[in-house]
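User: My instructor asked us to take a sequence, write out its structure as tokens, and then describe one feature of it. I'm not sure where to start. Here is the sequence I was given:
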Amino acid sequence: MENKIIFNADDFGISYGVNQAIEKAYHKGILTAASLMVNQKYALEAVELSKKMPNLDLGLHVNLTNEYPASDAKRLPLLTGNDGKFRNGFLKLMLLAIFKSKELRKEVREEMEAQIIKAQKMGVKIGHIDSHRHVHMIPLIFKEMLSLKEKYGIERIRVINESAFMTMKTNKRKSYLLDGGLIKYFLLKFFSILNGYVSNTYFYTMLYTCKLSEEHFQKVLVPRGFDCVEIMIHPSVTETDKDHLEDIFDQNILAHWRDEELKTLLNKKLLNNFCFGCKYPFLYELYFKLEGLWFSRVPEKLRFLLVGGFNTVFAYGVYAFLLKLLRLPYMLALAVQYFITINVSVFTMRYYVFRSKGDVIAEFLKAWSVYISLFFANTLGLSFLVEVCDIDELWAQGLYLIFSTIITYLLHKYFSFSKKVNKKKRLKE
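Assistant: Let's start with the prediction itself. The structure tokens for your sequence are:
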């Protein structure tokens, strides 16, 4: 299959200047795709412009954070405020996904489906789907978007699978250390791992989001295993938008970098700087090989013993440090140790032992309930060994961990990361 380079312009329909830039980048530059925001003022104009761009891969840029929803705002109390506008940013949506998952799931699905239907009614054949502010990478939202992708036959969903090491190898600027690009990358990459969805389209530019000058394309390394690469870009003609300030709700729309990104899109020579089939850096490559052997050659029970052993040693080390070096009371040391080590244990158990692809939030909550239950059992066992049996606090915790290992495995296997299939679903199949 021939390698494919997708330059995708986000925010199509958000402003007149963005629409103007996308049209120019398509006809005079290297733009091949755009993501439409159907609930923005210039969306209809964007659709009309797209009719003059026959080879443009037009997709949906789901918007859950800015301006008005496509569905009835009264049905979206978590997503919208009294003014009927969206009221949450990425972090608030992430917290809602944890603490109000059931309600958020319902509202998010309803609104995303409303935007898909609206796009179809506008005459758009949706070729791909992604989101404004990358909110679809939040596991709960990703799961619903993936379900809608399958339901409506949408070909591609954006996945943040970029290798930071490969990007850094050919880009010497370190702006991502100061503007939050690196933090954003690691958060979205972590969510991508949790989502467990594999795409053959490589994503490039997360580290330099909204700041893509021509120098970022001197050489683009696309790892082997990918026959397609997507570049997310945000072009605009800001001078045009400055003449329509009444339509601008976000100052980022006027950022000078949008003009710079339009300039990048007009440089056709950049297409010659993509290198497909590249090897990952040595340590990265070694990790993938070891991971492949880990899941193919090591049985689940042995994986548990090894990962559980690591988690046990890690937790015991933290406990010993808090107890002996910081001299905390043993019960306080135990509580702090659990707080520090629980998430490490849950993640490593979920991914490296059970390789679960179930509902991330539900599984994390169940796993947390397991560890909280074990914490209370641990406090009783530890206090008994210390106060009644007169055993040293450090040795007492070591004895308890020996007995808790089997219980932890059984609770995770048959509760936290259970792979039971719903009986009704099985009958249908």
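For the description part of your assignment, you could build on this observation: Residues 360-388 form the longest helix (29 residues). Try explaining in your own words what that tells you about the chain.
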